[in-house]
Amino acid sequence: MSTEKNKPTVQTTGHAWDGDIQEFNNPLPTWWLWTFYATVVFTIVYWIIFPAWPVGGDYTKGVMNEITYKTADGKETTTHWNTRALFLKEMQDAREAQAEYLKKVNASSFEQISSDAEMSAFANSTAKVLFADNCAACHQTGGDGVVGFYPNLLDDAWLWGASFNKIQESIAKGRNGSMPAFKTRLTEKQTSDVADYVLSLSGESVDTSAAKRGKSIFTTTAGCAACHGNDAKGQTSMGAANLTDKIWTIADVNGAATVEEKRAVVMSVVKNGKTRQMPAWKERLSATEIKMLTFYVHQLSASK
Amino acid sequence: MPESPSFQERIEIFPRSVKGRYRSLKTSILVLAYSVYFLLPWLRWSREVGPEQAVLFDIDGRRFYIFDLVVYAQDIFWLAGLLLIAAFLLFFVTGLAGRVFCGYFCFQTLWTDIFVFIERLVQGERNARIRLSQAPWTNKKIMKMGLTHFLWFSVALITGLSFTLYWGNAPELIVQMIKGEAPFAAYATTLFLTLTTYVMAGLAREQVCTYMCPYARFQAVMFDSDTLIVAYDEARGERETGRQKPKKGLLTSAERDNASVGDCIDCGYCVQVCPTGIDIRNGMQYQCTSCALCIDACNTIMTSIKFPTGLIRYSSEHELEGKKTKHFKAKNVGYAITLLATIMLLVWSVATRSDLEMLIQQIRQPLSVNLSDGRVQNRYDIKINNKTTKPIKYEISIEGLDRAELDMGRFSEVTVPAEGSVKLIAKVRVLPALVSHSRTNFNFVINSIDSKVKQKLSQQNVFYVPEKQLSH
């Protein structure tokens, strides 16, 4: 039996061309053939269970493969197996898994969230996505804003206040920032003097006598102090900027190289004023989403 | 024209049982291997945190528990080390002693062994099995065949089930599986392994080694003339006139030598015991798995007729040619050194693994931000992994930045849960006048503030100040 198997016999297909050219027959091993049959059986089972064949304008749906899923709006759908339903089912599972954390965040104060490493990490990673979808268009992906247009959220200068409550209010209700234009009320010289004064507050070296003249225009003639305060430190209640620090959100003083250029950018803002609007998000985002965004933005900020 | 079949018909093999040194060795390896494989999932182990199972591969938790060692996802490169060791061990052993793995340790060999044992238990010895297979289908044959396949399937099922139990808490998982509450993956794995075991060890058998196994084919590359092989001593077995049955005048080895007749009495026992159905007397063949059962068979016969044993034995091509076998060749020594080095590296890596891991990445969007007091701030994502089984409190600080402020929010001291991790954000603030380069290296340092565990880890990162803000 075994010796037969080992005899070096070569089978041929039996044909002979030109008298002596023959074709070897190397038959398939049995296991290979049966594996092939098994794949055929598998295919048939697959056709029965899964959507497979086009029939007219329709297709076979498969049997015993229902998927039931619930969408975010609570609508329940049962359908035959398909990858879209599978995806929606996975989304439902993910929502349900997230719900537990969301509930915890909802029930906690900002203080509690910032003292709990796990909750902080959850709020940050969830809000990062919300931020990218809703806020990054203006404030940029990293939150560094655009000078002259959109405030930088990473620094410690906050026009409307840096506390959790103030940030939450800014996101939910939006903000209208408005600085009036002074080009009709102040002469070119007066504007230049005010600009020198404002620059001197941030430690820029300017003509001291011009700055002195500017101070009196600032506090009395033009009435800048009404919003920015007598000390020019601004007022968060009306979104008036602090002019004494080194942060410039509208006039790009830090980007200018010489004192003349710096004066020019400040004068431009004084002359033309600035009106900015932050839209309200309470209609578009849920209270929990706004809460997590508030936490995230507060975490971005350098304010304590 | 002769009919040519579209596939190669399998010639069924009915291996005969044999007793002897190698059979005993193989049986003890089999008992040991089976004991470990089937019982290990049930072995309990006490840990401060984690499951009570000694060996558990927890895919969901991303951890492998192996007695007192917990392997995390980050340690996956150990797998590369393990595979390297396995490869070099295989090369080394094969170069030295041939297909030792095939003959003694391969699961195909072990499970085929147990399936053949069941077959013999139910249907009897080789001759009885051949008779039964050729007999017409009577009730008795159906009974015997049915029982054999039922037992095969049971062993296959237990095999598949045991494998599955390594991936979950065994006592819990088995109850879940019986109740129908276990995850789909558990059923699928069990079914798959049950079927493959049944098909490979029950039906396909030596075809797996002959046709499917790549190792069987590339082993030849590792062989040389000094490699140990199971070989028939042709010079002694055949002499000048070949094999002959024992008869008067040819009853002892000495008489046969005088008559130039080989010592092989052509009893065929070596062929009957072969699980791959070859005749070892034809020389080395790729089907031979070096199971050494033909050695036991031949020695049994030689002893019973009082001939010297060893007509079939572990030998090498050189030895058969009458030369000396050289075991310590450069190739084998090289494999051995590489193998030892790899083992030492892996052991070193496992033994010196830090139980504390810190991952710090500078936030790059933006790299820096200016603050109202003129300072520059950089932010960093920090992840701390605690690989111990206790929660540990850490203190985070920085070193190497002159008068810098580190703001960790509420987490300048943070407790990392046992076998857990925390993600934090660090803000570092520096006055640009105090740094002289755009990029300054400094260190984050974490210290455990726990009376029992002393851990300290320092990791370098970089503080960035835009070029134009530097004072020079």
- Side-by-side strand order of the widest sheet of chain A: 1-2
Structure summary, number of beta strands of chain A: 9
Main beta sheet of chain A, described?
2 strands, antiparallel
The beta-strand count of chain B equals: 15
What fraction, in percent, of the residue positions of chain A are helical?
Answer: 40-55%
Regions with little confidence, pLDDT below 50 for 5+ residues of chain B: none
Globally, the shape of chain A reads elongated
Shape of chain B: elongated
Write down the overall mean pLDDT of chain B.
91
Biggest protein-protein interface?
A: A-B, 43 and 47 residues
Radius of gyration of chain B: 33 Å
Description:
- The complex is a heterodimer of chains A (304) and B (472).
- In chain A, helix 5 crosses helix 12 (287-300), helix 7 crosses helix 12 and helix 8 (188-201) packs across helix 11.
- In chain A, a hairpin with a 3-residue loop joins strand 1 and strand 2 (21-24).
- The N and C termini of chain A lie far apart (89 Å).
- The relative contact order of chain A is 0.11.
- Chain A is mainly alpha-helical and 304 residues long.
- Chain A contains twelve helices and nine strands.
- The model of chain B has no long low-confidence stretch (mean pLDDT 91).
- At the A-B interface, helix 1, strand 1, strand 3, helix 2 and helix 5 of A face strand 1, helix 9, strand 8 and strand 13 of B.
- Strand 3 (28-29) of chain A pairs parallel with strand 1 (7-8) of chain B.
Features:
heterodimer; A: 304 residues; mainly alpha; two-stranded antiparallel sheet; 12 helices; 9 strands; elongated; B: 472 residues; alpha+beta; five-stranded antiparallel sheet; four-stranded antiparallel sheet
SSE diagram, text form:
The complex is a heterodimer of chains A (304) and B (472).
Chain A: H1 2-6, E1 12-17, E2 21-24, E3 28-29, H2 30-49, E4 54-55, E5 58-59, E6 67-70, E7 76-79, H3 83-107, H4 110-115, H5 117-134, H6 136-139, H7 164-173, E8 175-179, H8 188-201, H9 208-221, H10 225-228, H11 259-272, E9 274-278, H12 287-300
Antiparallel strand pairs in A: 1-2, 4-5, 6-7, 8-9
Helix pairs in contact in A: 5-12, 7-12, 8-9, 8-11
Chain B: E1 7-8, H1 21-39, E2 55-58, E3 63-66, E4 69-72, H2 77-97, H3 100-105, H4 107-123, H5 126-134, H6 139-165, H7 170-179, H8 184-204, H9 206-212, H10 214-222, E5 229-232, H11 234-238, H12 253-258, H13 269-273, H14 293-304, E6 312-315, H15 317-320, H16 330-351, E7 356-362, E8 369-370, E9 376-386, E10 392-399, E11 405-407, E12 413-416, E13 421-430, E14 439-448, E15 456-464
Antiparallel strand pairs in B: 2-3, 3-4, 5-6, 7-9, 8-9, 9-13, 10-12, 10-14, 11-13, 14-15
